[in-house]
Amino acid sequence: MEPVVPGRRARAWHAALVLALAGTAACGPGPTSSPGSPTGPSSPAASSSFEPAVVTVRAEPLVTIDGRPLAFAALPDGRLVVASQDGRAWVLDPGDPGSAGRAPLVDLRDRVLSGGERGLLGIAVHPRFPDDRRFFVHYTDLDGGTVVSSLEANAEGSALDPASERRILEVEQPYANHNGGAVAFGPDGYLYVSLGDGGSGGDPHGNGQSLDTLLGKILRLDVDVAGGDAYAIPTGNPWAGGGGRPEIWHTGLRNPWRLSFDRETGDLWIGDVGQGALEEVDVARSAEGGRNFGWNVMEGRHCFRSDGCDRTGLVEPVAEYDHSVGCTVIGGFVYRGAEYPLLRGGYLFADYCSGRIWAITAAGDGFREPVEVGRAGAGLAAFGEDAAGELYLANLDGTISRITARER
């Protein structure tokens, strides 16, 4: 299969990369908060004593999984769900790694278009599982469009019924790249969906800055609705009353390949894949809706075009790096586990091409320089977090690893 980098603009040197994610390669600012949001008013990040300069992390391999694994979800009993690009998903018990290869949780290969930046890109478990047995998937259908749908699990969470699929959201895609791909539940109980700008270089349709399209956005949906509606619009969504698509939570994104919530603060962290020069990490503090992260006016902290730009109302990233050290940011998690106290309060993220792993403190405001804390090889596609807050990595070569840490 042709290799893929999530959201990377095509270049001649990409043809030589033997990687499974290489590909062809955002109206004025909205409100900056969301009155009435179920999570309450915005609050600063929790204090942290995390010091990235004193930490080293390693990726310790656990198991190899078929189909190019690239997304995680957590079950409340400590098991992990791993989604593979080809349309299959697996259940992994970190205490019994061999369990992941026995049988897939679900096989959707008959309805998933896989290759390049397409495929089964995200998976999430309903926060009330097992009382609510729905799993949610984000994939590319056979016509090349984005689908977000739910599937019902059995009581043990060991199998999903493909016949139970209910499509919640369908979005046409103008190109084959920049599909986004993340799907996750926030602390408010709503489903968050990331969508890229639709593809091609430089966002030629201006989707990132348009409030008339879902492309180039983070969406917030209420999927716990009765009756025939697939979803409802949460009251606190910034454009719920008009002026833009009501599903939109944040705008101005190029290809937000991975997002996560800090389980301690509720902050939303986004790894947004850049264009030709810079990769960025964005954060929206808990309950802050309507953030405009700047694409395609800005790339990282800089004007995208050489003739300057109006930065009014745009939110700059908290971290960035250039293409001398990597090519595609893989957003991670704020570590809140118990096994490695040195990591607590640190946000870990990585690069797909170089395998570098960086860390920054999650607390406070303003830009901070990433500190390299480890390397794990090219092909990194996703971080995962289990129910206890411990972290994992997926590589497109099939390797699932556990993150460990020690003092430098």
How is this structure best described in words?
This protein is globular. The chain has a single domain, classed as Neuraminidase (6 Propeller). Helices cover 0% and strands 36% of the residues. The chain is mostly beta strands. It is built from no helices and 26 strands. It has a 4-stranded antiparallel beta sheet, with no helix packed on it.
Short description:
With 408 residues, this protein is an all-beta fold.
CATH class, named Mainly Beta
Provide the succession of SSEs: EEEEEEEEEEEEEEEEEEEEEEEEEE
Strand content: 35-45%
Query: In which range does the helix fraction lie?
Result: under 10%
- Please report the total strand number as a whole number: 26
Return the domain count: 1
Principal-axis shape = globular
Q: In terms of structural class, how would the helical and strand content be classed?
A: mainly beta
Quaternary organisation: single chain
What is the secondary structure topology, with strand pairs?
Elements: E1 55-64, E2 69-74, E3 80-84, E4 88-92, E5 106-107, E6 120-125, E7 134-140, E8 146-153, E9 160-171, E10 183-185, E11 191-195, E12 217-221, E13 248-250, E14 256-261, E15 268-272, E16 278-284, E17 298-299, E18 302-303, E19 319-322, E20 329-334, E21 346-351, E22 356-361, E23 371-375, E24 380-385, E25 391-395, E26 399-407
Antiparallel strand pairs: 1-26, 2-3, 3-4, 4-5, 6-7, 7-8, 8-9, 10-11, 11-12, 12-13, 14-15, 15-16, 16-19, 17-18, 20-21, 21-22, 22-23, 24-25, 25-26
